[in-house]
Write a structure and sequence with these properties.
By secondary structure, the chain is mostly beta strands. The protein has a single domain, classed as Nucleic acid-binding proteins (OB fold (Dihydrolipoamide Acetyltransferase, E2P)). The protein contains no helices and five strands. One of the primary rRNA binding proteins, it binds specifically to the 5'-end of 16S ribosomal RNA.
């Protein structure tokens, strides 16, 4: 079975070893054919506290780590220029 992966943007890094990642899904509306975007937020484990707000990250599904946390940061793809 394939491992689920998502690419999203870190929207919160206030928790210890946890980041909130917003993943945007774009698809055409079934009737009107206009592109619709839906955003889902995932809590992901960031053991090194390396990710900060605005970073682009890849997250991978894992075993349950807490009540809400089922994802792990697999890769820090890019961070905004400061």
């Amino acid at each position: 079975m394939a491992v689920k992966e998502r690419v999203g943007t870190v929207v919160s890094d206030k928790m210890d070893k946890t980041v909130v990642v917003a993943v945007e899904n774009r698809f055409p509306h079934p009737i009107y054919k206009k592109t619709v975007s839906r955003t889902k937020r995932y809590k992901a484990h960031d053991a090194a506290n390396a990710c900060h707000t605005g970073d682009r990250v890849r997250i991978r599904e894992s075993r349950p780590l807490s009540r809400d946390k089922r994802w792990v940061v697999a890769e820090l793809m890019s961070s905004p220029q400061t």
